[in-house]
């Protein structure tokens, strides 16, 4: 079978407490097929349910993040179903990962590529990254969360400026909008994502997850719910082994050895 006929895939690897989820379909600019979306959801679920894994790095092979969906396979006469409500949703519209995800993007990052990076927690972009939310130019509208995450990150005017024009913008603009947190030279982008993941993994995983959960409570339910979540944070972390270890490591002036319990 020739290379350009090989189906795309999403791979899953681990290194210590870090999971690496990589999109591999370079011959089609990492476009997603329904099978790849299922694989991605399955890998995200494996990550979320494995107590030994604390942070994930989500990236794409090659020069580009993704050109988007392989449209005929999603919307054509032989469209395949891929969604499973029991699995973690790559768009974080259904089940969302309880653990931090660092997304890394480069080159063409279109449509679902933007929506999935905005569903992650931290984004590193290569300086080659080009973003475009193309749906309205194709006769449809965003389905993966762009319609509200653009507004949440960038405000109404900036969101409409890009969503309604379907224009292309670069990594610096994405940084200015708050879509990405760092821009680094191409070739350093994945390593930078790994460095950030290692920094997160050096912290207490229960505290990290409790922080994410409480922040999401604010997004989903507002300030009063976020205030109420403080009691949940106390119950989750303050009597944990990691909390005692954190205090003891401070007293003993040494690096903490967190265990996630």
Automatic annotation (TrEMBL):
<dbReference type="InterPro" id="IPR001753">
    <property type="entry name" value="Enoyl-CoA_hydra/iso"/>
</dbReference>
<dbReference type="InterPro" id="IPR029045">
    <property type="entry name" value="ClpP/crotonase-like_dom_sf"/>
</dbReference>
<protein>
    <submittedName>
        <fullName>Enoyl-CoA hydratase</fullName>
    </submittedName>
</protein>
<comment type="similarity">
    <text>Belongs to the enoyl-CoA hydratase/isomerase family.</text>
</comment>
<dbReference type="InterPro" id="IPR014748">
    <property type="entry name" value="Enoyl-CoA_hydra_C"/>
</dbReference>
<dbReference type="Pfam" id="PF00378">
    <property type="entry name" value="ECH_1"/>
</dbReference>
